[in-house]
Amino acid sequence: MFGEPGSDVFGWGITTLGNCCILNPRRTEKLEPEQECSFVPMPAVSEKGRIDASCHKPFSAVCKGFTYFAENDVLFAKITPCMENGKGAVAKELKNGIGFGSTEFHVLRPLKNVSNPLWLYVITMFPKFRSDAEKVMTGTGGQRRVPISYLEQYPISCPPIELQEQFATFVSQSDKSKH
Question: What average pLDDT does the chain have?
Answer without folding.
Answer: 92
